[in-house]
Amino acid sequence: MKARALFVVATLALAGCGGESHQDLRAWMVEQGKGARGKLDPLPQIKPYEPFAYNAFDLPDPFKPRRIEPTKGASKLAPDLTRRKEPLEAYPLESLAMVGTLEKGKTVYALVRTPERDIYQVRAGNYVGQNYGVVTGVGETEVKLKELVQDGAGDWTERSSTLQLQQADPRARGKRR
Prior knowledge:
With 177 residues, the chain is an alpha+beta fold. It is 15% helix and 25% strand. The strands form 2 sheets. The chain has a 4-stranded antiparallel sheet with strand order 4-5-6-7, with no helix packed on it.
């Protein structure tokens, strides 16, 4: 009895789904599609392949770094490459900071801090930075340098640089009472 009742209910449910309940939607779709005509652009013209012969095997590879060799001629600006390096020549100039000055006798020294927070004294004639920078003057607020840099042709040129005095951060000071 239960099986018959279940069969009757299932048959009625399937009969309800099979009707044309979406006939209005189908009619609207047919109406909308009557005037629509698709248009395709023609395929582009295919150009024939033209092979290229590479004949620059004896030229330097542009994707490999080249080393600039110092010029063999006597350049008056060329640095002394046999000179013993000073400690501050191991750091780029941008990573060094002038933090103060010190006067001993008549000589004024600048106090320069490295990224490792070590402090060095420099005076005129000392070397600083990785571009053969020589200190030309020490003032109260800056250190003046002359650096030697090599251009793409291998020639040495001189440029002026400075290390400015770094102002102390007022928040970093301890409070005194």
